[in-house]
Design goal:
Blueprint: E1 2-6, E2 10-12, E3 23-25, E4 28-31, H1 36-50, E5 75-79, E6 82-86, H2 95-104, H3 117-122, H4 126-130, E7 133-134
Antiparallel strand pairs: 1-4, 2-3, 2-7, 5-6
């Protein structure tokens, strides 16, 4: 597995509680020979090595690695006790995914809806776009 492209870092407020520490977000484009389940398991191991521990949903965490796209296909896979859906079901509403993704792949299309990334970004509320800061 190796990195082909990397976006800038983007700072966003915590959600749903904006009083918690801000998040730093980045999108990487990688090349890998790993199957989707093996990639997922490897990424979970990286999270643990960095120091991620289990916590309540949407609570602050040291690291959270999501798979946004895998070969422009749709997947729903049970892996051990986790259920992985690719593309991420809520990515279309997430400024911290769409803006860095656009930076590294401005021609990307959603594998399920076939919408262009520019269409998805145009549907974000203005406050969502102005609330993100490029580092």
């Amino acid at each position: 597995m190796y990195i082909l492209k990397s976006s800038s870092f983007y700072e966003t407020p915590s959600w749903p509680n904006t009083k918690l520490p801000k998040y730093l977000n980045i999108v990487l484009k990688i090349n890998t020979d790993l199957s989707l389940p093996n990639l997922f398991l490897n990424l979970k191991n990286i999270e643990k090595l960095i120091g991620r521990t289990p916590g309540p949903r949407n609570s602050p965490r040291v690291c959270d690695i999501d798979i946004i796209d895998y070969n422009q296909k749709n997947y729903s896979i049970k892996i051990k006790k986790d259920f992985l859906i690719v593309p991420h079901p809520r990515l279309s509403a997430r400024n911290f995914v769409l803006l860095p993704l656009f930076e590294i792949c401005n021609h990307w299309k959603h594998p399920k809806t076939k919408q262009k990334i520019t269409e998805l970004i145009s549907k974000l509320p203005l406050s969502s776009i102005t609330g993100i800061k490029v580092m």
